[in-house]
Design brief:
The complex is a heterodimer of chains A (354) and B (315).
Chain A lengths: L2 E5 L3 H8 L4 E8 L2 E6 L25 E8 L11 E2 L7 E6 L1 H14 L7 H9 E6 L25 E5 L3 E6 L2 H10 L8 H14 L14 H5 L4 H5 L7 H5 L6 E8 L2 E8 L20 H20 L10 H5 L6 H21 L1
Parallel strand pairs in A: 2-6, 6-7, 7-8
Antiparallel strand pairs in A: 1-9, 2-3, 4-5, 4-11, 8-9, 10-11
Chain B lengths: L1 H16 L5 E7 L6 E6 L29 E5 L1 H12 L8 E5 L8 H7 L4 E7 L2 E6 L2 E6 L6 H4 L11 E2 L14 H7 L3 H12 L7 H5 L24 H14 L9 H5 L7 H15 L27
The chains are: A alpha/beta (354), B alpha/beta (315).
């Protein structure tokens, strides 16, 4: 794959050209935090951020997404017929997504695009999007991507990887979608900076000091983990809010709701959270996880065990650290993973000993 | 502050050893700067996990609801007022709790620290009235009073209102404070300005319900926003539903809120929803001379009738 150089003097001009073919999205500072949003004409992405408050998952998986409209008016010949909501699946590009957030979407894709299930809403938006990544040269103290199967220059899920330098960007083109985007922007200048990029990657990886222990999770016995005695201690502080799941780039649960006003109705899906006490309550009234402990255990077992076993692609976490930073009561996935992992390493030792 | 920690451990050890309680609810050191984690200690040998510093802003009364055990609980002024409220509302029995009172000197607002410093916060240490913050770009020392949560800098009930043990002598209460200046500003707005102000205030809300769940008052078995038969409130990001949640929740807290600040502290997107509950606190004070949770001997303003209750707001 080729590497090109984009002078900053040509940056905004190129972005404006891109608008002929793409709707553009990027990080923008809102009040105290950066978040991803659509960029208005002339608005550039604000790339001087470490990590956005919320992940950009909402760009392919909106917090509230309209699915159908319907009429309940008996006079209406189309009464009671669900009609597909209109969508814009035209080409779009996210400029400045962090490698961890892009990798997160490729993990989510395993759930939304597999043999048993294809999610049209998620896939249509995902496929319409070109992902232009921004390498991390100054990671946060809570970033643990390098031990979560990711990294500050990780390329998975990206079409282009940008590294920002004083007066230019180095852009590594990773896919055909990426080639098309760079051509549309008219940034043609070839560069031989690939070696520099590799060097910068190594320097950036060195800066990631936080770690998550996961090497023995696959070996751990699921039922032993499920009945482990540490869950009460881990879950005690939890207030069952949705901060961790809503800020997480890999959490994908949703809840389908109908809302009716007079004779018109909509069916939509909204983000759901396994932390909420009413999550997956059955129509019989049965609640499969009716205690805080069961809910907290579910969140960590899903990310660190069920997903690991089901897909054999590592944990369902990319190490962005948002849940660690934002949890109001300081529940730390690294600590939980270490406890779960230690059960796995005990199991491994037992196997070797037998 | 570290003397508080020693004393809390000493009391907890004694309570557990003497079987006066089955467990002690307190804080253990967090994995992040400016954060501690609520925890339970059940064995005397584990009391050294307990800590106290200016990062214990979560209201521990929230962890008492409906518990059956005999519990020792570390409580600063506002926590103790919520324990009183819990007892009044039958969420816990007085005999069940041994209140380990902490005369509070205010809690640090981590967002204020982030706003005043440059770069990722790596380490924070406290000494007397100063706080030293080490970031990726250097070290800065602040007066602690400049970093306090707003509710703490306006607090006039720093000492626990009930306690069975005390970790130190009472602190001097702040005086000459107008806690409701921000509410008065909103009251002075025209209704259109106020509407826009609330719109703006609540626009970042993601409905994670951290504010509700961090609140010791919000213990309903099913919150009205979660109710589905009938469904009172929509679940999308429709601003009308977001507003309904915040306004109604505030009204449910009328005459009960102690302005402990747990809601604002817990919010991941920095919304000051305390402005809503504070307005109702102010009304309760102005109309009924009532402040929540100060004593076990008087019933809350909104659950008693007095012949001289003002009624000129009924139109």
């Amino acid at each position: 794959m080729k590497v090109i150089k984009i002078d900053k003097s040509q940056w905004s001009q190129g972005l404006e050209k891109l608008r002929n073919s793409f709707r553009l999205f990027g990080p923008v500072k809102e009040k105290a935090f950066h978040n991803f949003q659509e960029l208005a004409a002339g608005q550039a992405p604000e790339l001087d951020y470490q990590n956005t408050r919320l992940s950009p998952k909402s760009l392919v998986f909106p917090q509230s997404e309209l699915m159908f409209n319907y009429s309940l008016d008996k006079e209406d010949p189309e009464c009671n017929i669900l009609k597909e909501a209109e969508k814009d699946y035209g080409d779009r590009a996210i400029i400045g997504i962090r490698p961890c957030d892009a990798k997160a979407l490729s993990l989510v894709k395993m759930n939304f695009n597999n043999d048993q299930y294809e999610d049209p809403y998620w896939l249509n938006l995902y496929n319409a999007t070109t992902f232009v990544g921004l390498a991390c040269d100054a990671p946060c103290s809570t970033c643990f991507c390098t031990t979560a199967g990711c990294g500050p220059y990780h390329e998975e899920g990206l079409d282009v990887l940008l590294a920002e330098r004083e007066d230019h960007f180095i852009a590594k083109v990773l896919t055909d979608k990426g080639v098309r985007l760079l051509e549309s922007a008219g940034w043609p200048q070839a560069s031989d900076d690939e070696a520099a990029l590799e060097k910068a990657k190594a320097v950036a990886e060195e800066k990631i000091v936080a770690k998550i222990e996961t090497d023995s999770l696959a070996a751990a016995d699921t039922m032993a983990l499920h009945s482990a005695d540490f869950w009460e201690d881990i879950s005690f502080a939890c207030i069952n809010c949705g901060t961790c799941t809503f800020s997480c780039p890999t959490c994908w649960c949703f809840d389908i709701q109908d809302e009716v006003y007079r004779k018109k109705g909509v069916r939509m899906r909204n983000w759901d959270s396994c932390m909420f006490p009413i999550f997956t309550v059955h129509t019989t009234g049965h609640n499969p996880r009716d205690t805080k402990l069961a809910r907290v255990r579910q969140r960590f077992m899903h990310k660190l065990k069920y997903f690991v076993d089901k897909y054999e692609k590592g944990i369902m976490c990319v190490g962005c650290g948002r849940c660690v930073r934002q949890c109001p009561v300081n529940i730390d996935i690294r600590k939980v993973s270490a406890l779960m992992n230690s059960l796995g390493s005990e199991a491994k030792c037992a196997v070797q000993g037998s | 502050m570290s003397t508080y920690t020693e004393k809390i451990r000493e009391i907890a050890r004694r309570l557990l050893k003497e079987c006066q309680v089955e467990m002690v609810i307190g804080f253990r050191k967090g994995s992040m700067p400016l954060m501690n984690e609520p925890c339970i200690v059940r064995k005397a040998e584990d009391v050294d996990n307990l800590v106290w510093d200016s990062n214990c802003g979560i209201n521990l009364a929230n962890y008492l609801s409906n518990r059956k055990e005999k519990i020792g609980i570390v409580a600063k002024g506002c926590d103790s007022r919520n324990i009183v409220t819990h007892i009044m509302e039958n969420k816990i029995q007085r005999e069940q709790v041994v209140v380990i009172g902490v005369p509070c000197q205010g809690m640090i607002d981590k967002r204020k620290v982030a706003a005043l410093t440059d770069g990722d916060i790596l380490e924070v240490s406290e000494a007397d009235d100063t706080v030293t913050v080490t970031t990726a770009n250097g070290k800065q020392t602040f007066d602690k009073k400049d970093l306090l949560q707003q509710n703490c800098s306006l607090c006039t009930h720093r000492n626990p209102v009930i306690h069975d043990e005390m970790v130190a002598d009472e602190v001097v209460e702040q005086t000459g404070i107008d806690p409701y200046a921000d509410v008065a500003e909103i009251e002075a707005m025209s209704s259109e300005e106020r509407w826009n102000f609330f719109d703006e205030l609540l626009s970042p809300c993601i409905r994670c319900y951290a504010c509700r769940n961090a609140c010791p008052l919000c213990y309903c078995p099913t919150c009205f926003v979660d109710e589905s038969k009938p469904q009172w409130v929509g679940k999308s990001q429709d601003p009308l539903d977001v507003r309904t949640f915040h306004f109604l929740r505030a009204y449910h807290c009328a005459g009960r809120c102690t302005d402990c600040g747990a809601c604002e502290r817990a919010c991941p997107v920095g919304i000051n929803m305390r402005l809503l509950t504070k307005k109702l606190n102010k009304d309760c004070l102005d109309l009924y001379g009532w402040e929540a949770g100060l004593s076990l001997d008087s019933r809350p303003a909104l659950d008693v009738y007095k012949p001289n209750d003002p009624e000129n707001f009924i139109k």
